[in-house]
Amino acid sequence: MSDEKFTRQRLLAVHTLTPNLFTLRTTRDPGFRFQAGQFARLGVTKADGSVAWRAYSMVSSPYDEFLEFFSVVVPGGEFTSELSRLQVGDELLIERQAFGYLTLDRFADGRDLWLLATGTGLAPFLSILQGFEAWERFERIFLVYSARHGKDLAYGDLIAGLESRDYLAEHAGKLTFIPLTSREAWPGALQGRITDLIASGELERAAGAELSPEHSRVMICGNPEMIDDTRKVLKARDMNLSLSRRPGAVAVETYW
Ligand SMILES: Cc1cc2nc3c(=O)[nH]c(=O)nc-3n(C[C@H](O)[C@H](O)[C@H](O)COP(=O)(O)OP(=O)(O)OC[C@H]3O[C@@H](n4cnc5c(N)ncnc54)[C@H](O)[C@@H]3O)c2cc1C
Ligand SMILES: NC(=O)c1ccc[n+]([C@@H]2O[C@H](COP(=O)([O-])OP(=O)(O)OC[C@H]3O[C@@H](n4cnc5c(N)ncnc54)[C@H](OP(=O)(O)O)[C@@H]3O)[C@@H](O)[C@H]2O)c1
Questions:
Q1: Average pLDDT estimate for 143-147
Q2: Model pTM score
Q3: Which of 63, 146, 176, 238 could bridge 180 with an S-S bond, Cβ 3.0-4.6 Å?
Q4: Ligand closest to the CA atom of residue 83
Q5: Domains 3-95 and 104-252 alike in fold
Q6: What is the CATH number of domain 3-95?
Q7: What is the pLDDT of residue 44?
Q8: Domain residue spans in the chain?
Q9: pLDDT band for position 1 (50/70/90)?
């Protein structure tokens, strides 16, 4: 990638959550603009001097002066092996242009917003929920976050604190957070996969709301198989991908 296509930013903070999950905060180039839900391409310089690039959704909101990212560590992964070694003060390359269509402007209307994430697929939803738009446009918001184990459920404090932020106080009560764990029972979480819990009706019972093409707008992010399988379950209920030529109820971002 040519030099003028990216900027060099510095790590401000790194937090290890589990051996396979961490968050990092970086400086933000004042010229870097994005919409909540979009991703950036990050570059790390490897030992041989070459740069590995990967897509990463912003966790932080477009209003924040810093950028924040939430990362998995893939054992032996070309990019995450390097990224997870970085420390405060180290350099991270960030492409100037942000990308992606997992943004609220995919939906023209809708009453309930459903945000369905597996693993680090939570990231774009945290960016969306830290802005005003989702809260102003939708009557209810359901954040469904699926992880293998309870210890993998990140950002609990940020999520719990959203409705007490000054600028969101008037919307308090709109958000229902539904954590899911698939490989163990966990206090406060439903047990199982998003797909199975939709098919059985358990997710809607927990939400106290129905998934319907009229009222629900669904964003899905993370594991590609989960996205395919969830799209099938939703399609059976007449909920289809939202395209510019044919508005629908579903928008997705696959991570690999
Ligand atoms: C649009 C977009 C946004 C993305 N945003 C994020 C993000 O915010 N956070 C993040 O951690 N990753 C994100 N990814 C994935 C990221 O780009 C890399 O795939 C990831 O950093 C792993 O890189 P790697 O070189 O170590 O392994 P790769 O060689 O890229 O991947 C190897 C394997 O690891 C698994 N894998 C890759 N990414 C993940 C993941 N996120 N969670 C679980 N398993 C995974 C898959 O099985 C994949 O085949 C995003 C991908 C896309 C396309
Ligand atoms: N070495 C380790 O101990 C360890 C631990 C964790 C992560 N990792 C690394 O991290 C990566 C996986 O990360 P992750 O756990 O965040 O991602 P993940 O494998 O995508 O799992 C996240 C959640 O998505 C669910 N899911 C997966 N496929 C689905 C489908 N088709 N339909 C519905 N739900 C589905 C999983 O349920 P299920 O549990 O039912 O699959 C889990 O609840 C691996 O590539 C691995 O490298 C390693």
A1: 99
A2: 0.98
A3: 146
A4: 1
A5: no
A6: 2.40.30.10
A7: 98
A8: 3-95, 104-252
A9: confident
User: What's the pLDDT score for residue 3?
Assistant: 79
From the alpha carbon of 147, which atom of ligand 2 is closest?
Answer: 43
pLDDT digits (tens, 9 = 90+) for 155-189: 999 999 999 999 999 999 999 999 999 999 999 99
Contact 125 CB / ligand 1 (< 6 Å): no
From residue 61, give the alpha-carbon distance in Å to each of 26, 77, 114, 241: 13, 28, 19, 25
Q: Ligand 2: distance of its center to the CA of 120 in Å?
A: 10
| Nearest of 31, 217, 238, 245 to residue 133 by alpha carbon | 217
Class (C level, CATH) for 104-252? alpha beta
Give distance in angstroms: CA of 172 to centre of ligand 2. Answer: 32
238-245: long-range pairs with CB below 8 Å, 24+: 238/213, 239/211, 239/212, 239/213, 240/213, 242/106, 242/107, 242/217
- Pick the atom of ligand 1 nearest to 123's CA: 8
Q: Whose CA is nearest to atom 34 of ligand 1?
A: 74
**pLDDT for residue 143 is more than 90:** yes
Stretch 39-59: mean pLDDT:
97
Nearest atom in ligand 2 to 223's CA: 20
